[in-house]
Amino acid sequence: MLELFLSLALGIGLSAACGFRVFVPLLVISAAARGGFLTLAPGFEWMGSYPALLSFAVATVVEILAYYVPWVDNALDGVATPAAVVAGAVITASMVTGVDPWLQWTLAVIAGGGAAGIVQAGTTVLRGLSTLTTGGFGNFVVSTLEWIGAFTTSLLAVLFPVVALLLVLGLIVFILTRWGRRTQPAANSAH
User: Is the dihedral of CA 136, 138, 142, 148 positive or negative?
Assistant: First the structure.
């Protein structure tokens, strides 16, 4: 049971990092698996291969650079949202071992995909506010914070999965609370 909890904490931490940048956690997983610091679930060993490491490295650089192009960053959020959810689910599935595949994928979709989707939604709203208030000129700050957040969360998840899980849960509560406050007045004025 402890092994399942730790693998789920690791998966959720890495999945949440997908909400900041889709490919950063995949690169961290690949490097950690290549270096022997991380064991991938059966069927996901390919993520630790040299071709995967190279592919994730190139995709990470392209993704990070693309988010520094004004207005392209907002367009990318439309693609990144479903990609983050899928990547989050795959990442959590790649961490969870020793359980029935149905449970593995149920946990992966709900916990991993959900964490990635909520964080991605939060970053999309933040970027939208930055675009609205600065005309897009402040988005480079948001982009920088996002890729730093993705690397930091990914490394923290690999090194200290329970700490990463607690921080991710705190971030999710913060995002949902802020989102709830923003939608509350609109719901109340409709009555």
Answer: positive
